[in-house]
Amino acid sequence: MDKRNKRGYFGDFGGRFVPETLMPALEELERAYKEIKTNAGFWEEFHALGRYYIGRPTPLYHARRLSEHSGGAQILLKREDLCHTGAHKINNALGQGLLARNMGKRRVVAETGAGQHGVATAAACALLDLECVVFMGSVDIERQSPNVQRMKLMGAEVRSVEAGSATLKEAISEALRDWVTHVDHTYYLLGSVVGPHPYPTLVRDFQAVIGREAREQLMSTYGRLPDRIVACVGGGSNAMGIFYPFLDDPVSLIGVEAAGKGLGADTHSATLVKGRPGVLHGTRSYLLQDAHGQIDPTHSIAPGLDYPGVGPEHSFLRDTGRVKYVAVDDAGALEGFQLLSRLEGILPALEPSHAIFHALFVAHDLPKEGLVLVNLSGRGDKDIHTVADYLSKKI
Ligand SMILES: *Cc1c(COP(=O)(O)O)cnc(C)c1O
User: Fold this and answer.
1) Is the CB of 309 under 6 A from ligand 1?
2) Which of 9, 33, 111, 367 has the fewest Cβ atoms within 10 Å of its own Cβ atom?
3) Structure pTM?
């Protein structure tokens, strides 16, 4: 059906670069996913939970004061920040939770960096009565203690990972290792459009609900497609989710990465803007790596963007030119955060604050009648201390 995705490749990107021991598990997952793709009952349950548990459809909100501030086009926010657990990640966690249950797996393992995917997975597992183990770097456990508490309160076990930099990259490696050893009854619930085939495809398909809803809302309210769509890119799931249903339309798509403290060495996470192709966590994609193929340290003020890889479909969309990728630094993200808070009374997460900031320039360059759709992927409650610290230091 989807030619670009034949055998799990998007052009030269994607694939399945894993140890032999994982191949049967990935093949089993691929078969199970093929089966549910055309299973109407599965999607009915997915959409019913979306409606009554997550709170979908999320509103398409016309940010009038933010639009005025841009001096140009109208800015529309897809309000994924209003999803249960506070971000788009629950769409994927519930979809894969249902898939795990369908496959007869009673135990779920997941990785988490800032804890957002861990919280979404813990919620989905509580709801679906699945055992839940979340791997998290010890440094992140320290930094993100409210999310660790949330996961535990919902019945998940949080396992500390001490290896390497003790952050997200090591947590993913550890979750993969656990999966290999318990594969008969364990499901690996991956949090973004990364990893070996079929994860980039199935996570995208669960997140595409964002773009499909936005398209319907645009058509019924404005009677037309938007001129531009802007979304932040960490692993790339909220961006793929909103872009995917518009790929064949005359709409320009813009992914915003984190330029951190600047695009010099080790101070950013702008994988598609500054990286080179390579293999990480089972997939071939753009990567931040040194001349010897060692993974570079990364930085972003937004924990969800702080990852040296990116989903393989984004690498393909970059090279074909279908999507344009840019980078916004920490200071820009903080300005986006403050503008949305003050002009609209909405505290955005620091991740989509990068997209908000860039969208102001995009809107500025269009006439008043133009429409710029921005994916507001999550709410900012988790980030208020980071923002307050930064602002007090600055003053
Ligand atoms: C995790 C997260 C992201 C980054 O992940 P993607 O897979 O790139 O979407 C972006 N926004 C929020 C609010 C997040 O929690």
Assistant:
1) no
2) 367
3) 0.97
